[in-house]
Amino acid sequence: MDMVLVKTPNGALAPADEEARALIEKLKAAKAHFGEFSRLNFPGDECAAVPATVVGRAERKLPRGVSLKDSGRFAAKKRVAGKDYYIGTFDTVEDAERAYMEFSP
């Protein structure tokens, strides 16, 4: 299962809780059944009340060289002259991006 991220009130990305995952799965099922305008088919349903803070895979943009691990931490990697360098894992995107930018082999 893909890791689903939500934006926290301070703007950081964090793994979604089970309630958000359930709403996302319900939305996916409705979209598969009713098409692109499935939210219009359920105006009073909780499915239409999915918070706008849910970030889809295509909308999530991580900085170059930063990826999200299954643990919820962020990994920094850099490729230089055809060699891959693993820099480390970090608690925040900003720390991983800073390490990527400062790294030189």
Quick summary of this structure?
It is built from 3 helices and 6 strands.
What does it look like?
With 105 residues, this protein is an alpha+beta fold. It has helices at 18-34, 38-41, 93-102, and strands at residues 5-7, 13-15, 54-55, 66-68, 74-80, 83-90. The strands form 2 sheets. A 3-stranded antiparallel sheet has the order 2-1-3, with no helix packed on it. It has a 3-stranded antiparallel sheet with strand order 4-5-6, covered by helices on one side.
Structural class: alpha+beta
Taking Cα atoms only, what radius of gyration do you get, to the nearest Å? 17 Å
Task: Please report the number of helical segments.
Answer: 3
Order of secondary-structure elements: EEHHEEEEH
Helix content: 25-40%
How would you sum up the global shape? Answer: elongated
Query: Number of domains in the coordinates?
Result: 2
Identify the strand order in the major beta sheet. Answer: 2-1-3
Q: Regions with pLDDT < 50 over 5+ consecutive residues?
A: 46-54
* Strands, total number: 6
C-alpha end-to-end distance: 35 Å
Name the average pLDDT. Answer: 75
Tell me the fraction of residues in β-strands, as a range.
Answer: 15-25%
Structural key phrases:
about 100 residues, alpha+beta, 2 domains, three-stranded antiparallel sheet
